[in-house]
Amino acid sequence: MKTSEKTATKKTTVKDKDLAKKIKPSVVKETLDKNTKSAAVKKTTTANKSETKTKAKPAASKNLRDLFEDSLKDIYWAEKALTKALPKMAKNATAPELKKVFENHLKETNEQIDRLEQIFKLIGKKAVAKKCDAMTGLIEEGSIIMEETEIGDVRDAGIIAASQKIEHYEIATYGTLYAFATALDEDDVSRLLLETLKEEKNADVALTQIALAHINIDAADKIEK
Questions:
Q1: Dihedral, 175, 177, 183, 186 alpha carbons, nearest 10
Q2: Rounded to 5°, angle at Cα 87 from 84 and 89
Q3: CA 5 vs CA 13, 15, 122: distances in Å
Q4: Tell me: the pLDDT tens digits for 174-222?
């Protein structure tokens, strides 16, 4: 290394040491604290964004009774929609016993609608139907399955699958409504809801028995070998 280069390096090192001496420890600590706080604020802001709750609508339920009544309107619409969907399922079914299940459940559905109207009367409310998006989707799925399956065992298997999704939704709904009514000390309402809940469970069992008895097996035989 040349003498001039050594001298320049030495001067730079001396300047760095002098600068380090001039920076007070308190200033260094203050800078570190600011950086730490900044990182903490940034982390908290990110966490708050991920935990932001959905803003409630002006007409949102304020208590369990409100939620109960709103749910009744929902299932009331759903049952009425089913009175139009069940005949279509029965018409597209091939197995006589499957047709029979849909025909019987249509009668039960009409009785369930009557029960819901009794419940509205018991709680002093007008029977009003509120569109059920869940049931709309389930019924639509059933229609699509019928279009995408050949008539016979395969379509029957598809119809059963779609129907049981509907039954499971109704079982969940009536089970919840029964729990709500019980918590609200609506004994007569609870009794009516429990009656419907049992019917939905029985319909689900009937569909399972038919599927396992032969429809699923017969549909499996349609697989090309």
A1: -120
A2: 110
A3: 12, 16, 99
A4: 999 999 999 999 999 999 999 999 999 999 999 999 999 999 999 998 7
